[in-house]
Design goal:
The complex is a heterodimer.
Chain A (H helix, E strand, L loop, with lengths): L1 H23 L5 E2 L7 H4 L11 H12 L1 H4 L15 E2 L6 H4 L3 H10 L14 H12 L3
Parallel strand pairs in A: 1-2
Helix pairs in contact in A: 3-7
Chain B lengths: L1 H29 L11 E2 L2 E2 L8 E12 L16 E11 L2 E8 L4 E11 L10 E11 L22 E12 L4 E12 L9 E12 L4 E10 L17 E9 L3 E8 L6 H7 L5 E2 L2 E2 L5 E11 L1
Antiparallel strand pairs in B: 1-2, 3-4, 3-16, 4-5, 5-6, 6-7, 7-8, 8-9, 9-10, 10-11, 11-12, 12-13, 13-16, 14-15
Classes of the chains: A mainly alpha, B mainly beta.
Chain lengths: 139, 303
């Protein structure tokens, strides 16, 4: 009888543990570590910074390529965000926006791990900066 | 002397070649091609002038269900027999050149196709229109005894009886960020046809999209086989019916989803142009009972 009790107690602990983890895991997603940005990108200049006509293009490309994970307003709440192993940072973060355009360029188009490379999908340099310019409006 | 002339002409060719190359480069820098006039190489059951970047593999899934005519008894054709399916793979081998292969359920067809976009519309109208050529050769893969059982003049089986082809010139223009339109002329040919059908058919095409959200567009396609007597001696045959479809497209980074309703169940174009007997209109109204739901999904991989 005692063995059953022990077994039951043990199982309840396991079950409680699973239940507990089920609720905590999603919030506990690991954020990716610091990015290693090559010097070339750190100093890269946004040659289309003042081109307001590109915002429309940037929005269009953002909707097509980025929204499904990063969310419509860059708040990391796109439908695919939940299934990622790595946490996604909100574009509204002051820390995120404090990064230079070149750094954002590297993160957006070269990527790493779960953030895919977009160099082939968004091949035109002007289009890439249009996306960066649009991300800057999501503060 | 000969040698000198040869060397001189070689030099001239190289000199002009490099001058020309530079010109195109500067032109490109000034006037780039317009951004995505269409989201995919497919538009419903037709082609667009769009070809993906070099080394892109495109997988296409095309499906047409049965017609609406039996109403709710077969869930408006979704449970109906006679659905048609095509699976296709296209690969972009060079800038604006694509080759592909596909298999279709109807007539157990295998098709080999190629598309070449000769001109892309540019942003500042240096080139105002896009121009593309599309062609395919298809092989009817059914059993020998199922090939055209009605044609008595055909006594001996030949492999060429299985072949059909389609060639099309497409002209397109992205009129605004919202509206893109295409027009085309095509020639379809079947080596062996069912009795009462045409061997050759010239057709015209009109299709387009109307963007309603950044990722969503209303799309339509219209194919009209022309009744040109001089092309075929069989004057008393009924001309095939036009094909009309209306649908909605959702595009993402790597996919395009198009769902539509149309009145032809063909999935390769020569089949649509030669074998469609369903009317678009019935007494001036859309012949809705004969329409069917279809979808096209494309998935891209970049290499």
């Amino acid at each position: 009888m005692k063995t059953y009790k022990k077994l039951f107690l043990g199982l309840s602990f396991v079950f409680a543990g699973i239940l507990f983890m089920a609720f905590t895991l999603p919030q506990d997603k690991k954020m990716g570590g610091p990015w290693e940005i090559p010097a070339k990108y750190k100093t890269m200049k946004n040659t289309f910074k003042d081109d307001a006509s590109l915002l429309k293009v940037g929005k269009m490309l953002f909707s097509k390529h980025c929204k499904s994970c990063h969310g419509g307003k860059g708040e990391a709440n796109g439908p695919k965000a939940k299934s990622m192993k790595t946490g996604i940072r909100s574009f509204k973060d002051a820390e995120f926006q404090a990064q230079s355009d070149g750094v954002l360029y590297y993160q957006s188009f070269i990527g790493r791990d779960e953030m895919p490379n977009y160099e082939k999908k968004i091949a035109d340099e002007e289009d890439r900066w249009a996306v960066i310019n649009y991300i800057r409006t999501l503060k | 002397m000969r040698n000198k002339i040869f060397t001189l002409s070689c030099l001239l060719v190289f000199a002009f070649g490099s001058v020309l190359a530079q010109e195109t480069e500067t032109e490109k820098a000034i006037d780039k091609p317009v951004r995505s006039p269409f989201e995919s190489g497919y538009l419903i059951d037709n082609q667009t002038t769009v070809i993906q970047p070099v080394n892109t593999l495109e997988f296409a899934i095309q499906h047409k269900f049965g017609s609406f005519e039996n109403g709710s008894s077969d869930l408006f054709g979704l449970y109906a027999a006679g659905a048609n399916i095509r699976l296709g793979l296209n690969y972009v081998v060079a800038n604006n050149v694509q080759v592909g292969i596909g298999v279709t359920k109807e007539r157990m067809t295998t098709d080999f196709n190629a598309k070449w976009t000769i001109l892309e519309q540019t942003r500042n109208n240096t080139v105002p229109l896009a121009l593309a050529l599309y062609g395919n050769i298809a092989i009817d893969g059914r059993d020998k005894d199922q090939l055209n059982p009605f044609d008595e003049s055909q006594t001996e089986y030949e492999f060429s009886n299985r072949l059909s082809s389609f060639a099309q010139v497409i002209v397109g223009r992205k009129i605004s960020d919202v509206v893109s339109l295409q027009a085309g002329v095509s020639f379809s040919h079947y080596n062996l046809i069912d009795y009462g059908n045409y061997h050759d058919k010239v057709g015209v095409h009109l299709n387009g999209r109307f963007k309603v959200t950044p990722q969503g567009s209303i799309i339509f396609n219209f194919d009209a086989p022309l009744d040109l007597d001089y092309l075929d001696s069989a004057k008393n045959y009924n001309n095939p019916e036009p094909n009309f479809s209306l649908g909605y497209e959702i595009s993402t980074s790597t996919h395009a989803f198009q769902i539509y309703a149309g009145n032809s169940n063909g999935l390769i174009q020569q089949d649509i142009m030669v074998n469609n007997t369903t009317n678009v209109l019935n007494d001036g109204f859309i012949n809705i009972k004969k329409y069917m739901i279809g979808f096209t999904i494309t998935r891209l991989w970049n290499f």
